Amino acid sequence: MTTAFDRRRIPAPEDSYPPELSHSGIEAGPSNHAARSKSTKPIYLKAGLISQANGSGYIESGRVKIACSVYGPRPKQPPYSPQGTLNLEVKFAPFASHSRRAPLRDTEPAALSSLIHSHLLPALQLHLLPKSALDIQILVIESDSVPNVLSAALTVASMAVADAGIPMNGLGVGVMIDSEGSGDRNQSDIEVHDSGGTISMGVMPALGRISGIWMTGEMSLDQACSLIDTGVQASKSTHAILAQSLIARAAEQLSSSS
Amino acid sequence: MATLSPAERSYIISGLSSSTPTRLDGRSLHSPRAITISYGDAPQANGSARVCVEGGTEIIAGIRLEVGDVVPRTSDINGTGNGKGKGRATGGEGWQTQVEVDVTPQAYPQLSQQALSLLSAQYESLLSDHFVPSIPPLPILPPTKYFIPHLQLTIISASSGSIPSTLFIAARAAFSDLKIPKTKRIGWEGATKGHNGDRETDDGGMDMEESDLSGIKAAVRGGRKGPGGKSGRARVGGDEWDLDPSGDGLEVLQEREKLPVLIILNLIPSSNAFFLDATLAEEAACSDRLHLCFANFNAETICGMRMEGESGIPTGRIKPLIVEGQRIAKQLMQSLNEQIPTGASGITAAAHR
């Protein structure tokens, strides 16, 4: 016997509206980024995100969100090593990219970890940490393309190491430039393929040294050199933001302990 | 990788950075060791090569072509289908070469199994990032059927160092030796109202006249009507292909002279010079190096850059290093291109100095 209040069925709303489809964010072509193509994209950096870790950091840059935590220096098992060991692990969340990554199979790319490792090494003073290991875990929450992730991860990793109080040669900053724009660009993977080439660099602006460089694609020599120059310039502003967020964190710690 | 004592390390570095640079084997800073390349060592493979560097490094490369179905590029860019767990995009093109580098325990007896597979993953990503994008596609029936090359490199011995550039030379030599079977498309040519498009096929294509739709032909044509069929534009059929036996049925890879080479500039810690072709001991002593890949005739374009090291490079030094690297790459490419065998049977030994 049907009544007006049939509990087995979900009552339908009385009105109906067509669904509103939001404009999809990923589009091939430069139209999406035309407004921002000439300026560096905004970056949000915060140190001290994770309280159990010795040092930690969080970065949001365009469509990349990364959290990083540093544990160390921790004693390392024998055999004796005269220099500290850097163990760096990058882990992607399964929902981080446009298509889902299967856990354990696609979420831990070894090649990216070794790239970030080699870009971070010049900034650290491992000879001051014998018999010790420094463990850095990088968790990518949202990513769009590999060069973007590489440069953002480098920035946040050096912030986390500095937050842990480990002496460094200089603050390393990651920048990504492609051969279409004249500054940092936010690029989806589709565009990475179509443009001439992309350079992802680790720079230590305070020392004027390049700690790592990774280039894919194809471009002429002059283009590559001018991109490198652009990147070095762009790294200075990121470096300033990094330094400020570290100072803010230190001030926070001072005021909370006093 | 040799482990060096501090005394050995400083001995090597002071030899390299002195005003008259000396190396352990007496070479000058920029002189490479002799490289021997032989093509066609593995006749069952579609293309193969073996590269030996004076001093013991030996790498074998082999290519197997597989016919693959490629989904035309969609949004699956992040390569989750790549079961090796690298998790990065290969540009989204399904026809790109798949690379595998086998780092054998006999080449690196001191490394554990885990370290071997890590090294193998690093070399694979080096090749996929900087060598594979320059390989042209091998279409059979574009855009869905391609020959997909599977490149397998085996490091048999690594006793004289400089593995990455030798990997590139071996891959390049294998692609130079590659013989691709010629194919032809067999298809139906759909006739439309008044339009009798005439599509050229190699040998076996069949043209269909306008009104003759009897029996099998009609059924096939009817079944082949694609999305454009109803409006009167018959879709050009052609899901079939066959080998083309004209000539000897094989062709070489186009533009194989343009494939990339990798130059490794090893930087000397306390000086502005660099040296080439490091031995194992020199690699362990000077860990700062710059990898540069150049492609195209005369090494015109740069297609990859990587840096390794502990101390970084001052920003002003990068450009001159890149220019020097290009000059060296040009020489290397020219001498490698001269040695590519032009005959169909390719067992040619070539020495490069």
Automatic annotation (TrEMBL), chain A:
The lineage of its organism: Eukaryota, Fungi, Dikarya, Basidiomycota, Agaricomycotina. Residues 1-12 have a biased composition (Basic and acidic residues). Belongs to the RNase PH family. GO terms for cellular component: cytoplasmic exosome (RNase complex); nuclear exosome (RNase complex); nucleolus. Keywords: Cytoplasm, Exosome, Nucleus, RNA-binding, rRNA processing. It is found in: Cytoplasm; Nucleus. This is 3' exoribonuclease family, domain 1-domain-containing protein. GO terms for biological process: nuclear mRNA surveillance; poly(A)-dependent snoRNA 3'-end processing; rRNA catabolic process; rRNA processing; U4 snRNA 3'-end processing. It comes from the Eukaryota. PANTHER family: EXOSOME COMPLEX COMPONENT, EXOSOME COMPLEX COMPONENT MTR3. GO terms for molecular function: RNA binding. Residues 41-167 form the Exoribonuclease phosphorolytic domain. Residues 1-37 are annotated as: Disordered.
Automatic annotation (TrEMBL), chain B:
InterPro entries: ExoRNase_PH_dom2_sf (IPR036345), Exosome_comp_Rrp42_subfam (IPR050590), PNPase/RNase_PH_dom_sf (IPR027408), Ribosomal_Su5_D2-typ_SF (IPR020568). Signal peptide: none annotated. Keywords: Cytoplasm, Exosome. One of its GO terms (biological process) is rRNA catabolic process. Residues 80-93 have a biased composition (Gly residues). Residues 74-93, 219-241 are annotated as: Disordered. It is found in: Cytoplasm; Nucleus, Nucleolus. One of its GO terms (molecular function) is mRNA 3'-UTR AU-rich region binding. GO terms for cellular component: cytoplasmic exosome (RNase complex); nuclear exosome (RNase complex); nucleolus. Belongs to the RNase PH family. This is Ribosomal RNA-processing protein 42. It comes from Kockovaella imperatae. The lineage of its organism: Eukaryota, Fungi, Dikarya, Basidiomycota, Agaricomycotina.
